[in-house]
Amino acid sequence: MMAGVGNLSSSELAGERMLVPYTTKSQENEQCCFSDTTETDLLRNELGVQDIWLGRYERTDGTVIAGPGLLVLLEQANAKLADALKSQLENSVDAIRAMPTPFDQAILGDDSAPGRKAVKKALDALTAQNSSILQAAAELHIRLNLKN
Amino acid sequence: METNADFSGGDTTAFDSTRNAFSLAARNLLPEHRTAYTMGSFFFDESWLAASVTPSDRDGLGPMFVARSCIACHIRNGRGRAPDSFLPTDSMVVRISIPGACEHGGPKPEPTYGLQLQTHALPGCKPEAQVLGSYRIIRGSYGDGEAYYLRQPTFRLSNLGYGPFQTNATISPLVAPAIIGLGLLEAVPEKTLRERELANRQRTDGISGHVNMVWDATAGKIVVGRFGWKAEQPSVSQQVASAFNGDMGLTTTICPQENNTEAEDVLTNALSGGSPEVSDEVFDATVLFSRLIAVPSRRDSTNETVLRGEQLFHELDCAVCHTPTMQTGDAPGFPELSRQTIRPYTDLLVHDMGPDLSDHRRVYQADGSEWRTPPLWGGGLIETVNTHNNLLHDGRARGFAEAILWHGGEAEHSKQQFRLLPKPDRDALVQFLQSL
What we know:
A: mainly alpha; 2 strands; globular; B: alpha+beta; 4-stranded antiparallel sheet
């Protein structure tokens, strides 16, 4: 679970799906350049990560399935870190939602452009979240190895 | 229980023995290297495209090439395999040259085909050749009478695109090696290699490895070689530039020319992907990524059989060349790689491996029968990562026992001792190698 959630959060979402297009400013490097659903995919990725930590999942009809999540485990090892991670996950969700659409336009321009500032803010939120996930793994005595 | 011996790559070591074992970032990767590492990883995996009128970050493939991406041959950053009679090479390159040397002492290109055969080409261009392998089975037996069967390869070239070779040309088929721990090997001080060379010179048992002195295009001088099957590349950056160029037909600042010769009239058909085709930013990121891939930890290092195998590895003098431990020096800009105790099981020297392994092709000071001691770290995970156990430069060996049995030349005595071991000891030695 830690490897799955760690790699989705760090290598895939923050790394190849956001950092690479942000750095190259190139539409061909965005996640869904053909269907133009990149922003939805990024948000769903992050919600998935959050679901694993919170132990909850909202169905398309709005009903919620809930049970113990990874955060319950982390709370026992380090409650302060668990709190921090919980709010970092919320910050990431908010920051990804706040990115202007379409994503391939948001990454263009210089770094003061509103789109790039918003994407950068989401990237920074994910960086904080990923650093906590690595720390959480250590607290749980798991050697988490990430692709990048 | 883990011991220091498990940290094959020092602080870079990753603990994962799944098929992802070669695909992990150094555990001590610095936050300031993460962006470039991610970029490099991305461009290592991405397929390059033919240049077209639409601008792209990753165009310029070809006109002739071996593969479209780095990962196509270095599958999951791992090792390529040998071809057979039906399946052409898909994760190996075939070098070619004629007797003599070029101006810096490297191999002399075949006048039409250059230094490497390109097995694919863009539409409108012809590939240089197709390469198939066939095998003759050689029977041998261990000291206790148990039979073994080795496969001796012959590589057949067909569909030559640009006429016959010069008759005295020689070819060398080389599988893609795993790309773990390259930055650590680069950070081993030259002094260490020289000390190993001196220690070899003082031996009286025939083991006589030496450094290969090769051309460094960036420095513009002859330096110690470290990478490639013949230690023909001095640095990770030149290795990466050569691979972009020779394997994918992509130009870089270091290798600005396309890979076809003047005798091959192909450029008129192809657009360029820019000058250079691989931007310095993408190139630098790919080099940084190549330096900072983690080495996987050992498994079972305290298992009794493994320990017995390790003892035999030393007793049979395997460890003379497959040097278990080394220290890295200072790698400027890379604290992750600096002053690490690493366990690569190589001395980075070239050794005579005997006529049966010779490719009859001299590369700088490495003769046809001389090969760089390949690192053994991660060797026990090749099968997990790459779903094959093909070892040696052309992938002829199926597993460690066969690889040992192909050793000759300086390793003849060690090989014979292995052959004469009782079966439980042979198995223990192989089990030790599987733990690396």
